[in-house]
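Input record (Table S2, row 470):
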Amino acid sequence: MQILKFGGTSVGDADRIRQLASIVAAARASDSRLVVVVSAMAGVTNQLLDAVNAAVGGDIAAIADAHAKLRRRHREALARLVAPDAEAPPLMAELDALLDRFARIGEGIALVGELPPRARDFIAGLGERLSARLVSAALRGAGIPSAPFDADRLIITDDTFGAAVPDMAATALATREALLPALDAGQTPVVTGFIGATGEGVPTTLGRGGSDYSAGILGAALEADAVVIWTDADGFMTADPRLVPTAQVLAEISYAEAGELAYYGAKVLHPKTLLPLIPKGIPLYVKNSFRPESPGTRVSATTGEWRADIKSVTSIKGLALLTVAGRGMLGVPGIAAKTFAAVAAAGVNVLLISQSSSENNLCLMVEAADAEKTRAALIKALTMEFHHACVERVDALQPVAIVAVVGAGMRGRPGIAARIFSAVATARVNVIAIAQGSSEINISFVVAEPEAGAAVTAIHERFELGAAAG
Ligand code: ASP
Ligand code: MG
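Output record (aspartic acid complex):
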């Protein structure tokens, strides 16, 4: 059994959905047990959320406007995918009913001037409910027996709206109960990505881009043989091809490498997708739905054959480096604890941490948008330390970028860091801070944002990642 997940651009319009149907038909030739997971049509989740965000500020017209646009787009796709026979009218009515719920809730939000998290999650997940129905109809049109399934009956989560955490045991039960009979009957179910529901049935979402995660969760719940993420990229690459034109697709990488790369800027896969798959050893493939013939990347427990010492070099931009500094920090316990507690209390995510052993400063990277709020929180939390002059300054430096070098081949191998930093030095890029996790499969460092591209290119070249294999 396989899970095939298609992202927003792979269901973006009727032509893309037809392409999806042909990919599914081809996959069925070798494995008849398939579960399709879909994202909303490209841009729809943003449209829904933009509209309710505008509504909460009193802009009620934004709802009617989004409603009309979404209705037109889904109707147009449906009209092109399904013959105007008996099937089209009830389907159209079903899409309309979902869109009318959006309009009614949206108007309510505009009237009350408040957007409760659970209403926000319900609205955010509507695009998947619409696309799953379209895709399932398209499969039936292509002669593949299929029915749509809303994942709020399959993926059971806690009530952390916006980033819900699945209960894997409850999810496995619900999923198997709903999907196994459909599979046994020869159907290809089409499941909404991104959404789940609490045990009480209140709809939740798994976080932006979470449809990949849905595929991982369903893969584990159904003990699938493989999960295939059909997207608009050829797979994991040695670098971002927009930045480094010679970048190559990586045929095989390990779960750990993919985890690092999913996190560091290569937006190929939602970082949580692999979590449910790792304990079961289920392989994941990333493939390009625009070029189904290209081999893509296989992600599994093994790192695979590779000719260089590193696999990939990526960068994340739009960050800020916060530094807590003071000559009096040396040997004073608890400053790090207070620092990170304050950052956590401010709800800010930390991307990288570094402290030199002179203990004169402690730096951490956050998104640039969080810089000021983090700095304010730190100044407040460290009042006593300022008073005693242990801490003298909290600085925020931006815009900065993280450059991350990833590869299991670095582990236990001397000289890799030297080669990385000599390449960076040759490109005349200044390194502001460095971090290496003890997993030794990632070396990350901080540079001024405008220099990130030069650093990535220099490392890519030094390790000959772009050169043809052989
Ligand atoms: N449609 C959702 C989003 O845009 C989930 C996904 O596409 O994976 O975040
Ligand atoms: Mg995605």
